[in-house]
Design a protein that fits this description.
The protein is 45% helix and 13% strand. It is of the alpha/beta class. α2 crosses α4 and α14 runs antiparallel to α15. The structure holds adenosine-5'-diphosphate and zinc ion. The site of zinc ion (ZN) has 8 residues, from α16 and α17.
Length: 617
């Protein structure tokens, strides 16, 4: 009998090259979700459009094919400031990566160009503007080399109505014309159908493989709390649930970013501000500290975050209401990319609604644009005021059906709805009387004072104590009345007008005043939801057993020192999830260490001995 001893037949690389690369380079033993389908399709030369949530694993969809196909994978990315980190991450994995952008000097550029032409690179990152319609030096360089594929990252930047629109992306349709044989893969975490269609049309990807991954992020716990004392609430979140954790706090304005960061620092929390008003150097410094150091809190406007792929962001807190569900979802999506439990917390109050409605009214642009903004805000408000599962609402917004999740505030502590028809009528009729009888309009505070029968100076000055609604609302507290006004605004039963954001009736107010329709409102639960009651334990990562906790701390200390020495963020060395697994499983040998998720061949060779020493030290 013939025994075939050709070792190649046993070689996994020949049986399944994609899986071999995944294991050897990245240290993972299986593809996740739709990765496999995309990789196979692109390796075979096909185009793809990939919609996957943040943390879903988009990078591997182009990195693995780039390693398997001849030539260099060219990645178009708008995130110049992050290219260095992306390249460092790949290099620690043993992948030959480089970038070209405006931050480099001539010599650095030359070196990368030569490596590209000599095919000594696996991946090359370039900025969209450097392709500049095709006549730029970078485009000419690309003509002279061999390209494995084009990856168009953050592809939603091509969408003209989107908040991240970049005109340079429009010119990327030319890639297809100039390099008809090079496969293209466009990737984004933005999920709405409109954006999807627009990317497909503008980048001519109608015939591409379209992959829409499930958008759920089950490890994120969504919580939306009424805003009472925002700073105290925030501090409580940081101190009791996330001490020492890295996280992002979003504020709407630069001023509130500054004040909040100062406040946190004053409370002994390591916080840094980030907004577009800071000079370039400070911003770059703060961003890089946030990425590199453990446990910093970034207080930022939405100018911060795109492309931040720090895996161990444990919480994202919003101190102001986001303008749309898309924005909220993207921002909260920056939490927990490593799959460990994380918190998305939002505080929201009456002033948020008034302010945002006002901003839309006074915004530039035509009525159609204002209608879009207003519809986006309404969807966000509906999410805030829902008595159903937050996740169900959120996923429904992206066209995905689901059932109650057990890991959001409404699931953990279901709010009741109550019949607020009578208070709604009292409030609306106060506004009506001010309007009709006095020709006046006021903010929410005055109507509430009137209903509560408060004889303030302003009430006396306008003789508002003579109105028939004066003092008829003492059954509710001031806080409850503010909740009523907020929910009336959120439900569109009351409007905000003018520069001062005063209250005004609208068409929908009529039927309520005439008792033709009921008004149901969300009653806030008495106690705020704490993560401890979540299914599966705390929002913070589950406690390690005592023996493993010590090992984990030793590994973290080793990682911090190594990262510092190499000038890279800690997670580039190893993710928390990998260190936790090492600490728990206590591998005794290098080959046992090599089976742990996230430990590929290059890292094993480079760090293996040191890790074992730190573990058993
Ligand atoms: P995205 O770009 O979609 O936000 P990433 O590509 O950064 O996501 O991946 C998110 C995290 O998931 C990373 O830490 C990555 O290493 C990990 N990951 C991706 N694919 C796999 C896989 N097949 N097995 C294990 N971990 C994976
Ligand atoms: Zn839920």
């Amino acid at each position: 009998m013939d025994v075939i001893e050709d070792p190649a037949l046993q070689d996994p690389a020949l049986q399944d090259p994609a899986l071999e690369v995944l294991g050897r380079v990245f240290g993972y033993d299986a593809f996740r979700g739709p990765q496999r389908e995309v990789v196979d399709h692109v390796v075979a030369g096909g185009d793809a459009l990939v919609l996957m949530p943040t943390g879903g694993g988009k990078s591997l969809c182009y990195q693995v094919p780039a390693l398997l196909r001849d030539g260099v994978g060219v990645v178009v990315s708008p995130l110049i400031a992050l290219m260095q980190d992306q390249v460092d991450t790949l290099r620690t994995l043993g992948v030959r990566a480089g970038f070209l952008n405006s931050s480099q000097d001539r010599a650095e550029r030359r070196a990368v160009e030569e490596a590209f032409l000599a095919e000594e690179l696996d991946l090359l990152y370039v900025a969209p503007e450097s392709l500049g319609g095709g006549a730029s030096p970078t485009a000419r360089l690309l003509e002279r080399g061999r390209i494995a594929l084009f990856a168009i990252d953050e592809a939603h930047c091509v969408a003209q109505w989107g908040h991240d629109f970049r005109p340079d992306y429009l010119a990327l349709s030319m890639l297809h014309e100039r390099w008809p044989d090079v496969p293209r893969i466009a990737l984004t975490a933005t999920a709405t159908r409109a954006t999807h269609t627009e990317i497909s049309t503008r980048l001519q990807l109608d015939d591409a493989l379209h992959v829409v991954a499930g958008f759920d992020r089950p490890n994120i716990q969504y919580r939306i709390a009424p805003k009472n004392e925002p700073r105290k609430q925030l501090l409580d979140l940081l101190r009791t649930e996330h001490p020492g954790d890295a996280g992002i706090v979003y504020c709407l304005s630069r001023a509130s970013v500054e004040k909040t960061a100062e406040f946190l620092v004053g409370q002994g929390i390591a916080a840094l501000p980030y907004h577009a008003g800071l000079d370039q150097r400070t911003r770059a410094l703060h961003q890089s500290r946030f990425l590199r150091e453990d446990g910093l809190v970034m207080v930022a406007t939405i100018a911060f975050g795109m492309g931040i792929d720090k895996p161990d962001v444990r919480f994202v807190a919003h101190l102001d209401l986001p303008k749309s569900v898309e924005g909220y979802y993207q921002e909260t999506g920056r939490a927990g990319r490593d799959g460990l439990p994380s918190t998305a917390w939002l505080a929201y109050g009456l002033a948020d609604v008034v302010q945002q409605r006002k901003m839309i009214d006074s915004s530039e642009g035509d009525a159609a644009h204002r209608r879009v903004l207003s519809a986006q805000l309404d969807a966000m408000l509906a999410l805030c005021e829902t008595v159903e599962c937050r996740r169900v609402r959120l996923l429904a917004h992206f066209g995905q059906e689901s059932s109650p999740c057990g890991n959001c505030d409404t699931c953990l502590n279901p709010p009741e709805s109550w019949d607020a028809t009578v208070p709604a009528q009292m409030l609306l009729s106060t506004v009506l009387r001010l309007q009709r009888e006095r020709g006046q309009s006021f903010g929410a505070g005055q109507s509430i004072d009137i209903l509560l029968g408060k004889r303030t100076d302003k009430v006396a000055q306008h003789s508002h104590d003579e109105l028939t609604t004066f003092g008829i609302g003492t059954d509710l507290s001031e806080g409850q009345w503010r909740g009523v006004v907020r929910q009336l605004l959120a439900q569109g039963l009351l409007a905000v007008q003018g520069e001062y954001g005063t209250l005004a009736l609208n068409e929908a107010s009529g039927p309520v005043l005439r008792r033709e329709r009921e008004v149901l409102m969300r009653r806030e639960p008495d106690r705020p939801v704490r993560a401890a009651r979540a299914r599966g334990g705390k929002a913070a990562a589950p406690e390690l057993p005592a023996s493993a906790a010590g090992a984990f701390e030793r590994l973290r200390a080793w990682r911090a020192a190594t990262a510092k020495e190499q000038g890279v963020p800690a997670y580039v060395v190893f993710h928390d999830a990998t260190l936790r697994q090492i600490a728990t499983e206590e591998p005794a040998t290098l080959s046992a260490l090599g089976t742990i998720g996230g430990v590929g061949a290059t890292k094993l060779e480079r760090f293996g001995d040191q890790v074992l020493a730190a573990l058993h030290g």
